[in-house]
Amino acid sequence: MNPREFREMASKRFNHPTPQTPATPQPQMPSIPQMAMNLVKDGAKWIQGGMKLVADEVAAERLSICNSCEFYVGSRCSKCGCQMRVKTTLATSSCPIGKWGPVTAITEIPASNQIQTNPPAS
Question: pLDDT (tens digit, 9 = 90+) per residue, 19-40?
Fold first, then answer.
């Protein structure tokens, strides 16, 4: 077998075209500085609103809406970059494209789960 025949045989043997599915473009996440800004804004709004959480049913409904959204990637929203398992529980938060908004039917955070800013006096 001469080199040309070998190349042709190797080409046929090892270069079988593999079927490929067309790549579905993934939505791009916001930049890290933009995600940080979104986190700070939502966090400040949540603190100003009294650090209230929504009922479990409301959080589950919000997350269900996110799960069916074209901008939901993994566990995050590609519009704001937020972790939606967290964001959907905050009473003051809203969807960046308006699919759900802030609520007033809320659950207080138990004092045992709140962060203490001052150490207890001894």
Answer: 555 566 778 899 999 999 999 9
Q: What does pTM read for this prediction? A: 0.65
Question: Measured between alpha carbons, how far is 55 from 109 in angstroms, rounded to an integer?
Answer: 11
* pLDDT per residue as tens digits for the range 47-100: 999 999 999 999 999 999 999 999 999 899 999 999 999 999 999 999 999 999
Instruction: Give the domain range for residue 76.
Output: 27-109
Domain count for the chain: 1
* Domain assignment of residue 8, yes or no: no
Is residue 90 situated within a structural domain? yes
The reply to whether 88 falls in a domain is yes
Per the CB < 8 A criterion, the answer to whether 99 and 65 are in contact is yes
- Which residues are CB-contacts of 43 (< 8 A; sequence separation ≥ 6)? none
Q: How many CA atoms lie within 13 A of 21 on its CB side?
A: 3
CA 107, 110, 115 angle in degrees (round to 5)? 120
State yes or no: pLDDT of 42 exceeds 90: yes
Q: What are phi and psi of 57, to 5 degrees?
A: -65, -40
